[in-house]
Amino acid sequence: xxxxxxxxxxxxxxxxxxxxxxxxxxxxxxxxxYLVKSLNRQTVPFELIAIDNTTGKFNSAAALLNEAxxxxxxxxxxxxxxxxxxxxxxxxxxxxxxxxxxxxxGAAGVAGKLDEELLASVSHGNPPHFxxxxxxxxxxxxxxxxxxxxxxxxxxxxxxxxxEKAVDGWILYVANYCLDLIRQGYRNYVLPHEVYHESTGCxxxxxxxxxxxxxxARHKDHIKxxxxxxxxxxxxxx
Length: 238
Hints:
With about 240 residues, this protein is of the alpha/beta class. It starts with a helix and ends with a strand. The strands form 4 sheets. Strands 2-1-3-12-5-13-10 form a 7-stranded mixed beta sheet, with helices on both faces. A 4-stranded mixed beta sheet has the order 4-14-8-9. The longest helix is centred in the C-terminal third of the chain and has 15 residues, at about 205-220. Helix content is about 30%, strand content about 25%. The chain has helices at about 1-10, 30-40, 60-70, 90-100, 155-160, 175-185, 205-220, and strands spanning about 20-25, 45-50, 75-80, 85, 105-110, 110-115, 120, 120-125, 130, 140, 145, 150-155, 185-190, 195, 225-230, 230-235.
């Protein structure tokens, strides 16, 4: 079904312009009910590269996503969780219009922080509730993005992939990536296009701190304070 939709769209659009959606999933039902269902409504070309981790055999998001990205065909890569549902049928179309206006655009997502304020276009939980203090009307600059969804241009990601050594698990690899982009002079943004994310996030504080220790060690030379959707860290204390 995805292939048929993609080929139909390619008759109306330039080859290579679209979204390569990359997702590692451990629950096929959630993948189909949320991400796939919302993708099938979209008005622009896309491909879905879905990596089956239902057996739990893979233990590193960064390495797996890097490998998948090398096989992707479109000019924007979108890394998304299995339980993310795009809020409208023109979500990808609207996101693309915004991305073209941003410079120097590194990565864009749906939740992030520049300082202590959470900027988000996300509802999560069951029943759903909006996680931000205010709804956004335009893209907003942030330091790091939440890992539930991130978009990056193909040429940037193939040149600056996820760091497989700095973050080798399943959390905060996107936050670390955003800091890598900042080091290279790029900016990161939260888009004003809403999604639903069933999960409320990771609550394992020990696991979060262990990963943050590695991220702090990597970025303390160019960033004094790291703001993420799961907490704030002063790099000068490490």
